[in-house]
Amino acid sequence: MAQEILIDAEHLYRYYGPTCAVRDVGFQLAKGDVLGFLGPNGAGKSTTMQMLTGNLAPSAGTIRVRGIDLLDAPKRAKHELGYLPEQPPLYREHTVDEFLTYCGRLHRVSGDHLRVAVGQAKQRCGLGAVGKRLIGNLSKGYQQRVGIAQAILHNPAVVILDEPTVGLDPIQIREIRALIRELGNDHGIILSTHILPEVQGVCNRVQIINRGQLVFSDTMAGLEQHLHSQHIIVRLRNAPAPAELLQLPGVAALELLDDGRLRLRYEGTNPAVALAEIAVARGWGLEELIPERRTLEQIFVELTMQDTPIDTGDTGTHPTETEAA
Questions:
Q1: How far apart (Å, rounded) are the C-alpha atoms in residues 205 and 201?
Q2: Mind listing the pLDDT tens digit for each residue in 227-277?
Q3: Can you give the pLDDT at residue 101?
Q4: What's phi and psi for 73, nearest 5 deg?
Q5: Strands 158-162, 81-84: parallel, antiparallel or unpaired by DSSP?
Q6: Other CB atoms within 10 A of residue 176 CB
Q7: Is the CB of residue 236 less than 8 Å from the CB of residue 47?
């Protein structure tokens, strides 16, 4: 059974004067997805998030939330969105109950529905015991929970979280990550973060933006394929000449590491078994033979260090900036 598409963004551009901050970005978010949205500072991540939440009009492109065009029917589309900015807009002088009730009214939830909605949001976010406390007296971890509670209060289809664990201690981070995973069962989640292990621990899809363009988009299963490097690390007590190692089947290149080990790049089938047999037969003194596994950080750095040119709008071949409706 096909998953329901909650967000469908196509060919998004955003210009600031002559500079193109976001260029031809598009993706889909389905129910049950927890999408990790990554990018270095200045990559266009925040601009994209603001367009998806309706806080910034794209210069070109379309955004549909559950089939509703965000520009044509913004109120209907935004009703399907919940948003937690990096700095939660909390009223510190309010109690948790007062603040969530106020937020519910902003979302046009009223009467008995409002009381039920506030109770459910508190329960899901672990706020049941602090409803009468002033938000300003809560720990940062609990304040983040209040911020997430206001984002899910009206039961939106999509929840967008911008750096939800920044500044939290390790225990609070674990709790917020568990909450995000739980929310992913009933919503589509977009998680913007600089914490790469957070993506691997929470998300089922990953997108990386650099210089305004998507440079990577795949599932976590697809990412795992990228993490498996075509390299093996070898330590030999009596290493032969490099030319002899390069004659082994599948070995394409060799690199001597600072600690005396060798990194072998191979093509096709992993030659580890053949290498071990030959090392024993020829007395090379095999001490170490391990596959090299790349990290998400390595992939992130490789993709975001590429010298992709920034479009300055001089050619006149791209969409021009439009006024927000």
A1: 11
A2: 777 889 999 999 999 899 998 888 999 889 888 899 898 888 888 998 999
A3: 96
A4: -135, 70
A5: parallel
A6: 22
A7: no
Burial class (CB in 10 A: 0-12, 13-18, 19+), 217: middle
Sign of CA dihedral 31, 33, 34, 40: negative
Q: pLDDT of 287-312, one tens digit each?
A: 999 988 777 787 888 778 865 444 43
- For residue 237, what pLDDT is reported? 93
Q: Which domains does the chain have, with CATH numbers?
A: 86-155 (no CATH), 225-300 (3.30.70)
Assess contact for 7 and 65: CB atoms under 8 A.
yes
Mean pLDDT of the chain: 88
Question: Tokens 């300055």 — which residue?
Answer: 312
